[in-house]
Amino acid sequence: MRKLVYYVAVTLDGRIAGPGGEFDFFPLGDERQAAAYSAWVNPLYPETVPTAYRAAVGLTDVPNRNFDTVLMGLGSYRPGLDEGHPSPYAHLRQYVVSSTLRPDEADPAVTVVPSDPLGLVRELKAEDTGLDIWLCGGGKLAGALLPEIDELLIKSYPVIAGAGVPLVDGAFDPTVFDAAERTAFTNGVTLTRFTRR
Q1: Prediction pTM value
Q2: Which InterPro entries does UniProt cross-reference here (predicted)?
Q3: Of 166, 165, 126, 133, whose CA–CA distance to 150 is shortest?
């Protein structure tokens, strides 16, 4: 059975975005540090680079390595939609969980799921595609899907937001994960893979 993997950037105080959904405050380091970080991460997780930016980083024809499906909440989908990218990950099957987004507002390649994200994930996990499912955000969706999250890929940035969207926003449900591997970068970012215990 394939896994649901929550791959996301997070601040030191556990925020994946600011109070208004902003994410441009995550520090990337100087030009050399940012380039080294991208050169390591992008080939490892090429499918997580939005379609509109894949050519610029040399990933145009690179096949998916880890995921063939992306699952996101409206807060994760809306920025691309507002910038004129209604199909942000055209190289993946795309699902947006939202009770307020109308299907006609989204690209035809994006499936809008108005309810029962747990049921959707259980159906997707039962498919035998050979690749996993990427949960790219947001915090409320992660809270609803916590029972089905198998792995966390946490990009921890050396910044404190003070307020904003939490990594997981749901009911109190202590869930233990083990750190399986960790890589530190010169720009201060650490990438840690956690597996569900």
Answers
A1: 0.97
A2: DHFR-like_dom_sf, RibDG_C, Riboflavin_Biosynth_HTPR
A3: 133
Average pLDDT over residues 7-18: 98
* DSSP character string of 161-184: -SSSEES--SS-----EEEEEEEE
Question: In this predicted model, what pLDDT tens digit does every residue of 127-153 receive, in sequence order?
Answer: 999 999 999 999 999 999 999 999 999
Close Cβ partners of 193 (under 8 Å, ≥ 6 residues apart): 151, 152, 153, 179, 180, 181, 182
Pairing state between β 93-97 and 110-113? parallel
Report the C-alpha gap between 100 and 57 in whole angstroms.
34
Contact present, 27 and 156 (Cβ < 8 Å)? no
In Å, how far are 2, 34, 68 from 25, measured between CA atoms?
Answer: 33, 14, 29
Q: Residue 196: which H helix or E strand, with range?
A: strand 190-196
> Which residues share a beta bridge with 93?
69
- Residue (of 100, 97, 122) closest to 111 by Cα position: 97
